[in-house]
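Can anyone check this?
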Amino acid sequence: MLYNEKEVMKLIESDEWMMDILRAAKSLNLPDWWVCAGFVRTKVWDALHGYNSRTSLPDIDVIFFDKNDITEGKEKFLEQRLLELYPGAPWSVKNQARMHVINNLPPYANSTEAMSNFPETATAIGIKLNQENELELAAPCGIQDLLNLKVKPTALFKKTAEHASIYENRIKQKNWQALWPNITISQVEGVSS
């Protein structure tokens, strides 16, 4: 059983593949970078389900925050660079200084604020290696839902019927209960249209 951030970081630190991914991402020297979402969530849920083998990831989300170059071309260049450093990994790199436009929201102040606007609380989590090569965790919605195997919408995805619909469709599409049967999924309630 995992009970706190320190135990989550120990779990990740003991996984050489995850540490290699984090070292590759760190080597890009990106501002305010994190490897987030399913990268962390999947590891925790696999551990809490007692799985011995890793559940495959559709992508490895690397986010960063750089107002100086918000082009998609820069993100593609960085994905290619990561493929050279760690071939075969399904890298996905997104500059959070531009993602607010795609999400039709006011500009984010940093990557952690961007994470807080991910659809689910259990996905709003990131990990990185700091300057001292120690793990650092960002969890703007906390880690209790992740550790308690609960899927809930973040505050943003409770605000409007449109956001609630995005959350509900994503839950159907991901079909996480087929992979992790012990999770519980909350529906969005009392949303204004």
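Reply from J.R.: I decoded it. The chain has one domain: 5-148.
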